[in-house]
Amino acid sequence: MPNRELVSKMTRSRGLAAVRLVSGLLAASMLVVACSSDDGGAESAGEPVTLTYWSWAPNIEKIVEVWNESHPDIQVRVNTSTGGDEIVAKLTAADQAGDLPDLSNTTYQDLPALIISEIAADVTDIMGDREDETAAPAWTMTTLDGVNYAVPQGTSPMFLFYRTDVFAEHGLPVPTTWEQYAQVARDLHAADPSVYLSTFPANDAQLFAGLAQQAGASWWSVDGEGGWSVDMNDDASRQVADFWEGLVAEDVVATMKTYTPEWQAALADGTLASMIGAVWTPPILANNAPDTVGSWAAVPLPQWDPADPASGVLGGSATIVTTGTDHPEEAREFALWLNTSDEALNAYIEHASIWPAALSGRELPELQGATALMPEQADFYRTAAQIDEVTVPVTWGPNVPAAFDSFTNHFSAAVSARSGFADALAQVQADTVADLERAGYEVSE
Amino acid sequence: MPATTSRRSSASLAPRTAPWLFVAPAVLLAAGLIALPLVYTLWLSLRGTQVSGSGLGVRREVFVGLDNYAHVLSDPALLAGLGRMLAYTLITVPVTMALALVFALLLDNTTTRLKRFSRIAIFVPYAVPGVIAALMWGFMYLPGVSPFTDAAGALGLPEPSFLGPVSVYFSVANVSVWGAVGFNMIILYTSLRGLPQEIYDAARIDGCSEVQLALRVKVPLIVPGLVMTGLFTIIGALQVFNEPNTLLTLTTSISTDWVPMMQVYRDAFVTNDLFSAAASSMVITGITLVASLGLLRVLQRRAFGED
């Protein structure tokens, strides 16, 4: 069952522009509808309050239903028409129209944009004292300048998923360093030219960002004087770019985009023998390659320095209370319930899937066992918790979509040419800085 | 006559108000659906964001004058996109028009068989939505799932590359040609059916072959139809979006700013820069308007002898 992170991915897969266009139109029409609907705002005491909540998670209605049944006075209406990758544009439009929902989901990387547009409201009231009860990576990404701006939903520890049967057939070791990973890629492709260890997908800037973070990159940071600094072309990012350029130039990894029919076929027919993913990946693999269920295993990412293990961030989402709500108290109460109560998290596990940011949720019985994809790997979630421990703190900037778009374009060209990864990275840095400056920021590089 | 006089005087206002009533629906629709959005887009294109305050700052909308236009017009990506759009147009328009004309002439030929079936078969792709068509062709282009790749492998031929740096233009054009030929063919075929049969009889009596009849008699007579379909095809090509934007998710050969319309969409809905998107929209609207009006002027003079 897909969870939110998965869906943000799936939006891109089916994301087949059609979906985007249709949801674009939907948003436009929603705007019109929203403008004409009368929110009232001033319900008299005793009348039930109705909150609107934007989310793209499948089956989210069923989880909200649990709340609605136990809270007759605070009814929540879910709107699932906005995809994860469009949330900033849609919320900005709704903000301009003066019709923000009361709550919305957001990916972690979009949160800064929502903060500076004054869409995400301060939720320090309910989150401020929960640091000890929240997984560290999620805490960092929802807190800026000591203020909590969202209730984190999950974290996304990164894993290397690999086909145990393919590795056994060719007698390959499971790589624990990137050097070994490259050697396995060479050996595997040499042993069977129709098989690749993995693909380097130019469309997945998020994946590259995660790998760069693992190597020590910090793409955005708030500098002392209150401006942003952007550092996407640093040594760590270049190291990661060079590493993959080498593998692409040697033709020992594939270059197909992920979440495409070609990629689905490659997973299903064994052309791809591994995948770098996160805790939310197993249901995706199980859905795309049902015949391979049971032949996968997951290990932490290979390391640059095994003595000092690190991991990056790949996805994850949180719930914001918007500045446009007339019922901030009720909205905050719901946001907290949705992401931290056993009741809601159990419903998530039943109807979707989740690796909760709320530490108490990780004790739920369903998160002690194995996943459907890897029935023999009982320690999957324990490993996930350990990876969270070594995940580096990440700060996303206010223009992540622009940076990721630039990444996709420049790395698409570089991948097609099988060279020029370093130039592409320099271009991404230049584009990202230019975009921030255009928005009126002081940027230091 | 007295009766007429009285009727005229009682309805003395009618001649002045009636025309306004007749044009009112059109004027209202044009104002509401064309003029208003255009003015709003113009307004947006003169706005931008400014960040103020310390720390993270707060983003506010401000008036920026022509900044967005300066940004858009100096953006090499837009120029590159226009170039790609032009290349695409140069492939699509002649191929679509030539195929549509050939099919229409063949269907109009008395000796052609299976006319009804052929007409429907050629027209059906037009009924397939552009996005679906692009997806369908996209599957056939992708090496991993393409039946052409399998077929080439079985025949021992080299693997065809549909999404290479050059072939991608033809692959994108192919999707829209496939969809557009049927529609244009039907219009041209209808024009041909509207011609009087006597002309053909006279030409045949004079010893005209079927090919000569088609080229020397039929084609010159349906020039107005050709002008109209040609213009629609050109405007369609200048607005190309669906096909490349759908293929974008499948291949690294298409960027998110591959053609200007994709750049507008990207700016408005992905990178959240509505103001640049508005400015690019105004620029593209200007180009399309000038191109189509200019073309229409030239063609009208040639084709219809109008001024």
UniProtKB/TrEMBL annotation, chain B:
Subcellular location: Cell membrane
CDD domains: TM_PBP2
Superkingdom to which the source organism belongs: Bacteria
GO term, biological process aspect, one: transmembrane transport
Domain ABC transmembrane type-1, chain residue ranges per copy: 82-295
Pfam families per record: BPD_transp_1
Transmembrane found in the keyword field: yes
Keywords: Cell membrane, Membrane, Transmembrane, Transmembrane helix, Transport
PROSITE patterns: ABC_TM1 (PS50928)
Transmembrane spans: 20-43, 85-108, 120-142, 162-189, 221-241, 274-296
The family this protein is said to belong to: Belongs to the binding-protein-dependent transport system permease family.
Protein name: ABC transporter permease
